[in-house]
Amino acid sequence: MSVFRFSALALLLLSACCWADNEEVAEEDSDLSVSELLMRANSNLVRSADEPTLIEGDIAIDSEAERNADPCTSRGCKWGKWTDGNVYIPYYITNHFSSREKAIITRGLESFSSFSCIRFRPSRNTDRDWLSIESRDGCYSFVGRRGGKQTVSLARRGCLYHGTVQHELLHALGFNHEQTRSDRDNHIRVLLENVQSSMQHNFRKIATLNQGTSYDYNSVMQYHKYAFSKNNKPTMLPIPNSNVSFGNAKEMSRADIARLNTLYQC
C-alpha cells in the first residue's frame, strides 16, 4: 500500500472516529444538571426576528402581554384525553437532526409512556395540534397546548440531553418552573440583589395549582442556585435550611411524575 493510500485511509478512519465522538457528546456531559445545561445553552444567544420572546430562560411567549400573566392557567391548556384513558400528543421531528440526535429526542418522548398516560406519537395530516421539534436558537417551549403547530426548540448545540428533552416537554404539557410556584416563598428565598437587573422578572411567582404536591427541590423544573446571577453569588437559597441541595436534577423526579399524573388524571 502506498504512503498516500495509507495516509488517506488513516485520515478517513480518524474522521469517522471523531464524527462518532461528536455525535455522542450530547449525552456524555453528565456532570451538569438540566438547569445548568439550559442556562449554558441559552446564554448569549443572538435571537433572530422570527424567534419568540423567552422568559425564565426557556419559556416562549407570543407577546409581551403574556409576561405578566400565566397563559396556561388562564385558559384551557391541557392536551385532551381519549376514551382509552391515554393522552395522545402528536409530534414531528424536523430533518435538522442526525439519527443519533433523533434517538435522544425519541427516548425522551417515549419515557413518558413508562410512568404516565401521556403518549407522544408521530403526527398525521389530520392532526390540528402538534409539537414541531426543531433545532432553533437554544432550548425552549411554550407552556401548555397552544393550538396548531407548536414549536419546541432543542438546538443541536447544547440541548440534546435526556433531562433537557423531558424539561421542555413538561413545559409543553403545561408545567412552569418550580421556583415560580405560588408557594415558593415558603421554600426558596430569592436574592434579587444578586440577579441580573434585566432578568429579575424571571423570578415572579405564578398562581400555579401545584397538584397537591409539596415543593420539590429535586424537580427537573427547578433551576440551580446561581441562575441568572450577575456576580457569581447565589440567586436562590432554600429555607429554612440553606444547606439543602437543589437544582441538580438530571431527569424527572418522583414528584414531577406524580404532578403530571395528577394533572392529567392518569
How does the SSE layout of this entry go?
Layout: H1 3-24, H2 34-42, E1 53-55, E2 59-61, E3 87-93, H3 99-111, E4 118-122, E5 130-134, E6 139-141, E7 149-154, H4 162-173, E8 188-190, E9 236-238, H5 254-263
Parallel strand pairs: 3-4, 3-5, 5-7
Antiparallel strand pairs: 1-2, 6-7, 8-9
Q: Approximately how much helix is present in the residues?
A: 10-25%
Question: How many runs of DSSP E, i.e. beta strands?
Answer: 9
Q: What is the overall silhouette? A: globular
Rg result: 20 Å
Stretches where pLDDT falls below 50 for ≥5 residues? 1-25, 64-69
Beta content comes to 5-15%
Main sheet overview: 5 strands, mixed
Question: Span from first to last CA?
Answer: 65 Å
Tell me the series of helices and strands, N- to C-terminal. HHEEEHEEEEHEEH
Q: Summarize model confidence as the mean pLDDT.
A: 82
